[in-house]
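Table S7 (text form). Paired inputs.
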Amino acid sequence: MNTTAPEGLAEAMTGYRYPQTPLAWEEAVVQAGRLLAPAWPQEPSAGASTALGAVALTVYALAHARGVRPSEVSADTVLDAMDEVDVEHEPSGLKTLLVNELPAAGHTGDNDPLQRLRLSLIRRESFATTVDVPIDLTGGLTRCPSGLAGAAPWIRQALQQPHGSRG
């Protein structure tokens, strides 16, 4: 893989470097950037930036759960964590991992930046409507998809790029 980060990736990574977070978080952001670099878009993309945060948080949680360094978490491991989805196509297994591992790693409270990132990724808003909408018109969804569910297809595609993953 090219050792130079694609244009825009370094800037996106900077957005996830929070003060007073452990070194393992910094390593998780770097590993997420490494994993996503082959597919990083040439034009700025909010979706790719969201995906970077989601993958970094996943790498961090998986590293903590397995007792390894974030640099040891592979694309395949991240993809495996995303496999379990619920009936609304929300990555339920990954949400459970994040809910369990962030507090176990000492991230508690509303002011913790990793908890705030987790909440921003899993939050699901109600549909913006003042009347009840038949469920068949919503594609079976009861609420808007989370940012994590929205980013998941791009993440899956990006992690399956040639760099030793499932592809």
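Next pair, protein 2 of 2.
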Amino acid sequence: MPTVFELSKWHNDATTKVSNIIRSLGLSEVGIIWIFHNDTDFLQVIPSGKLVIPLILVIIGLACDLLQYVWQSLITHILYRKYERKYPKRKDREEKELFYSPCNNCFSYFMFYSKILLVIISYLFLGVYLFRFLLHV
């Protein structure tokens, strides 16, 4: 079981991950906006039908990645604040072990495995598309 101090570290790690993911998604959005910034025909800019599926899968996978760490940040923050009030002395926070239910991580694990599966499937679709494109099949 974690101490309050360890719970605080987990919270900091999770919020750092959320920040990194948001930064990456923001930079990706800049790229998407750059592609769509001109007033050309919308249908000419949309990826071909064969690339829409991997695009949707990777977007959902990125959303799962973000949700995983947002959930983890919220849970650890709530628990940390609860135990911080219960143990106001720093020494107690560093030494006392807390009850941390494995159920707190169920949603995070679901998002974790979902994002992996979605991105792998997305890359399989993309790989098939590129293979056919290179061989002109």
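The CA atoms of residues 54 and 122 lie 4 Å apart.
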